[in-house]
Amino acid sequence: MSFDIVDIIKEMDSHSVPLQLALQCAPVISGIKISNLLTIPAKSLRELSVVLKKTELSFRILYPGRERLVILIYREAELREYLERDEVREFIYSCGYETSDISKIFPMFVKRYMRYMELKQDFPHELGLLLGYPIEDVEGFIENHGKNFLHSGYWKVYKDAELKIRLFKNYERVQTEIVRLLYEGLDIMDIITNYSNIGHSRADYSDCVICA
Q: Per residue in 154-202, pLDDT tens?
């Protein structure tokens, strides 16, 4: 995040749902990522629901904490397509799921994630796939116990570091764009809709705009 954006944020309501969406979920808003995690106060859930209701973005509560919620913001069609890739589906099955259908994965995953959040054990590595991370990096993280990575950014990279560094820079770029738009007075729903209408490519990881 550049210095001038930091200054801008200081002038904004840091707790507002629109700003938190911009800071935490800019890549999925812009269409260059399948999904992002969003952490917000539990009292902000209703506002989030209103914001996303008329957009192409879906959400699912992964952890219903008393004070704060951990929520997956995602593009459903793209996430479903990603989870149906052969190598991704095989990984999901190896995690104990009988299907790669997200609607059927979520109930079991939420139980696992809640157990992890409350007991701090048995981290559910399939979260990386729900976030669209490249399968080689998810597997690399497991095999190396989170060590020996080539680069650490939005996730720990174990292959094609240069490509993913460029990807991370794209994430930072759209974050800056969306924060600026909010600061200039645009409504977050209009921003999300405008990005969807622009039709940013989100088809292929090899183009460095992976839905990862």
A: 999 999 999 999 999 999 999 999 999 999 999 999 999 999 887 644 4
Contact 152, 138 (CB under 8 A): no
Place of tokens 């952890």: 63
Percentage with pLDDT > 70 across the chain: 92
Determine the 3-state secondary structure of 70 from DSSP: strand
Distances (CA, A) of 24 to 55, 86, 88, 95: 17, 29, 25, 27
Express each pLDDT in 1-21 by its tens digit.
654 778 888 888 888 999 999
Rounded distance between C-alpha atoms, residue 38 and residue 85, angstroms:
25
Q: Which residues contact 169 (CB under 8 A, 6 or more apart)?
A: none
Distance between CA atoms of residues 121 and 211, nearest Å: 28
Q: Are 40 and 22 within 8 A, CB to CB?
A: no
Measured between alpha carbons, how far is 113 from 182 in angstroms, rounded to an integer?
32
Cα–Cα distances in angstroms (integers) from residue 16 to residues 13, 21, 150, in the given order: 6, 9, 35
C-alpha angle 82/84/85, rounded to 5°? 75
